[in-house]
Amino acid sequence: MLVLTRKAGERILIGDEIVITILDTRGDGIRIGIDAPRGVNIQRDEIVRAVTEANVEATHADGDAEARLKAALGLGTASAATPAAPAPAAPQSSASPAPTPPAVPRPPAQK
Can you give the pTM of this predicted structure? Predict the structure, then answer.
């Protein structure tokens, strides 16, 4: 692992296409900017871990996987959405069904 000390405004180059810029330092944290080609995935480690853990738990346990994922990410608990009540059935008419139209006669077969 390469360990560097950088100041705000300084950059780190990775290969020819990835540039990491130190934007700001705030107390015990820093803000960085990452320029990379669209095909390069850039993901926060804690998000990847939380999603992976939620997927593993969802396959092994009952419960609300979405709520566990939100809790792991610190997004609070979301109230479970209540499914909508089914629409009432259309009232059935007591009248008899409409009569079927008379059959159209076929012309006699040609010999």
Answer: 0.49
